[in-house]
Amino acid sequence: MVASACVLASAAILLSSAPALLPASALPSAQAAPPALTRGCLPGFDCDLSQRINAVDNYLRSRPGLTGYVLRDRVTGGVYANENAEQAVWTASTIKLAIAVDLLNRARVGAIALGPDDRGLMESMLATSNDQATDLLWNKYSGLDRMAFNNAFRANGMVSLVPQPTNTALFPDWSFQKCTAADLDRLMDYVLNRMHPDDKNYLLDRMRSVDFNQHWGVWGAGARMRPGLKNGWSAEQGGWVVNSVGFAGPGERYTLAIMSSLGTDGGYTEGADTDTKVAEMLLAGR
To answer: Any idea where the domains of the chain sit in the sequence?
Structure first.
């Protein structure tokens, strides 16, 4: 598998919108950001967060590979997407959050019945990012047309997600998919604003209780910000991808989606360090 490297030519994308699910068509074309924020605070963000965004963009220029991220302030409605936020990257295990969202939605309307074993598999999938648990759920609930999950992913905000050809009989396969940081941002926003409150709270609790192997990425916001997340990491033919999506702050005020594609420039450690530092620089102490 070779990760896509469609890098946007602009410097940054700045959005300001209500904290609701945004379709891809609502994202404006990329525009150059003012150098060093000399034009003042960014729309939808206070000056402290505006300066943090500028510092992160400068930091990423020194890091290996390409990193796309989207930061959302759910109180002000501000959304900032950097220049690589629409780059297609292997989802790795971040897609497990989308799988859990769809299973809970289907169970809520009675389309499926999630038994104790299913719940156990789902919690293992989220807590430790267990691949075998994900395989079992995917095969059991894919549906006769095999596109049940993917159709739901798009409806739940991941409008740019594309299943990739596999070397197995399965298509689509959860582990062979690409999306963008903007897709993960919209998925996280869907969870917080459109899911049934009981299901949303269940997911938030699971995302705050992930195992130590996922204590990086958005976790970098710090314990005082009570972060929750789903991370994904994978060595692909085109190099490592290391991704993180989650929330932090009182009332889950901030959401953050980060996707790092390392190519030949680094591996898991470099990607996890980048993702964690981005979260720390943006959100620690907020």
So the answer is: 12-91+158-164+176-283
Amino acid at 243: N
137 C-beta neighbours (distance < 10 Å), count: 22
Lowest-confidence pick of 9-13, 97-101, 176-180, 191-195: 9-13
Beta bridge partners of 241: 234, 261
Q: Please state, in angstroms and as integers, the Cα–Cα distance from residue 73 to each residue in 53, 241, 258, following that order.
A: 12, 26, 15
CATH for 12-91+158-164+176-283? Answer: 3.40.710.10
- DSSP H/E element including 12: strand 12-16
CA distance 237 to 271: 16
Q: What is the pLDDT of residues 109-145, one digit of tens each?
A: 999 999 999 999 999 999 999 999 999 999 999 987 8
